Amino acid sequence: MSTTHKARVTVSGSFHRHMDAISDAVRELTDRGAHVLSPANPHVVDREGDFLFVASDRTRSVRMVQDRHLEAIRSSDFLWLVTPDGYVGQSASMEIGFAVAKNVPIVGLHLPTDLTLRKYVHSFRSIAHALDVFDQLQSRATRIDQFLIDPVHSVEEAQGTLERIAAAVHGLAPSTTDGDVATLYDDCRHVASLLLTPSYNGH
């Protein structure tokens, strides 16, 4: 796989129920060229109560290990969620919430059983598929100077998209589907990309 930016990925899931699947995911992601920020080595070496420490954990402090995992999520291009039977434990649920708050996409092979959590997870047919999609998004990334290159067109396109957003928001009804919401969010991101400019420093 050729990428302009090596994908940074964090893997989450239940260490108690899905450690084999987590290990397989870390191995495949690494083999396919991704940089797995956490857990880099998911081999269990110790425990404190129900909390399992793996070989890549540098301390035996539950709080420090979890904080480092959250920081890895913040720094990731996406969070790979391992939930082959739909089960998501409490720690992984917190990590999903953290990823949502930090606008880190959550992807995996399977959707959670929990109805609310599954609304925030995107399923892919394989790890290779997810990395290919990431690669395509990187290659089609909007240039930061798009607004300055063609400001009139950017403003006109943004205005049209904003009108579509306004109509969608005013038309929201109990029958609104997840697809409708996803389209609305895509339009919002599109407006942001159209109007994104370099920082102005007076020069």
Question: Would you mind describing this structure in some detail?
Answer:
- This protein is of the alpha/beta class and 203 residues long.
- It folds into two domains: 8-138, Rossmann fold (3-Layer(aba) Sandwich), CATH 3.40.50.450; 146-195.
- It is 50% helix and 15% strand.
- The protein has helices at 15-31, 62-74, 90-101, 115-118, 127-139, 146-149, 151-170, 178-195, and strands at 8-13, 35-38, 44-48, 51-54, 78-82, 106-108, 121-123.
- The strands form two sheets. It has a five-stranded parallel beta sheet with strand order 2-1-5-6-7. A two-stranded antiparallel ribbon has the order 3-4.
- It is elongated.
- The N and C termini lie far apart (40 Å).
Summarize the structure.
This protein has 203 residues and is of the alpha/beta class.
Keyword list:
elongated, 7 strands, 50% helix, five-stranded parallel β-sheet, single chain, 8 helices, alpha/beta, 15% strand, 203 residues
